[in-house]
Amino acid sequence: MSLAFAGDIDGASQTAATTPEERTRLEAAAAVAAIGGNRDEALRALQRLQQCYGAEHPAYCFAAARVLTALGEHERAIELLQRAYSSRLPSLIYLAVEPLLAPLYHKPGFQQLAANMKLTPARP
Hints:
With about 120 residues, this protein is mainly α. The chain has seven helices and no strands.
């Protein structure tokens, strides 16, 4: 993911494509596509990830929230994070330091979720 944040979308895409575990590969591909501005590709990868996990699986909700945030769908992303929180997804401990979620830090729904978890979002 750091390659994508550095602007090397092609390198990030190649790295994502070589990830052996399918769910991780799809999540990375969706995130890289979203960061790179390829909405259609991001949504296709997200749809395949949903088929692997199921739409209500907390891990899918967290992954989808990250991708949707990068696509600018902030309210939908917060709803998915709240679902993951309701399921007590352990990965949510990274909520306040996840770079893909930084655009949500100032949103009231995100702030409430972080407060419920006793987390303080990092400064973007």
